[in-house]
UniProtKB/TrEMBL annotation:
It comes from Rhodalgimonas zhirmunskyi. The keyword tRNA-binding does not apply. One of its GO terms (molecular function) is amino acid transmembrane transporter activity. This is LysE family transporter. Keywords: Cell membrane, Membrane, Transmembrane, Transmembrane helix.
Length: 215
């Protein structure tokens, strides 16, 4: 049965798919990887403007990885049908690996000092380069796209997904920078880090299992 289309979306997409994609993005962004450490360090040492500019650079490159994954996956799967199964297995293993480490390290204190803050004038470029140099970004994008969205997406569908990705990350990093620049929010985030990490781990693990076990 074909799911009902959500108002305002293209014929190939549903609101449920967009929501699932956005929740997964937010869960992944919460993980203490290079991107989040850079965003935290930029905000704590450079202030709101630096944090927002850094987040914009991170978001732009992350959305670019999603665009490249969308463009390349259809061609790859048409030429090599076995590549779809390989991508599913690799993607599921990667998502479960992230979830395991997030859950295991949930109580490990987060040390923003491990990542140097960029100068304010170079904040956007620094964010862009961090995600450009992170090969895990494209694997994550490809894994999520395979499990959430159907094949044969139109150019309009793909453009909407990329734009949505960009807007979600820009909004999240901007909100994070605004909140983290205040002492109560900063202290609260660090105090509740174990809860946030384990919620994010549960979401990523469920997605990985769905990818692994689904047809």
């Amino acid at each position: 049965m074909t799911p009902d289309l959500a108002p305002g979306l293209t014929p190939g997409l549903t609101l449920a798919q967009i929501i699932a994609f956005n929740l997964t993005l937010l869960a992944a962004m919460a993980s203490p990887g290079p991107a989040m450490l850079l965003a935290i360090r930029a905000t704590l040492t450079g202030g709101r403007a630096t944090g927002i500019a850094t987040g914009l650079g991170l978001a732009t490159m992350a959305a670019g990885w999603t665009a490249m994954a969308l463009i390349g996956l259809d061609t790859l799967f048409r030429l090599f049908p076995w590549a779809y199964l390989a991508m599913k297995l690799a993607g599921a293993a990667y998502l479960l690996w992230i979830a395991f480490h997030m859950w295991r390290d949930a109580r490990t204190p987060l040390d923003p000092g491990q990542t140097a803050a960029p100068p304010k004038r170079h904040a956007f470029r620094s964010g862009l380069l961090v995600n450009l140099a992170n090969p895990k970004s494209v694997l994550f994008a490809a894994s999520v796209l395979v499990v959430i969205f159907p094949g044969g997406l139109s150019l309009a569908d793909k453009s909407l997904i990329v734009l949505n990705h960009l807007l979600v990350e820009v909004t999240a990093y901007a909100a994070f920078a605004l909140l983290l620049s205040t002492k109560p929010a900063r202290d609260g985030y660090l105090r509740l880090k174990p809860l946030f990490d384990r919620l994010a781990a549960a979401i990523l693990a469920a997605l990985g299992l769905r990818l692994l076990l689904g047809r």
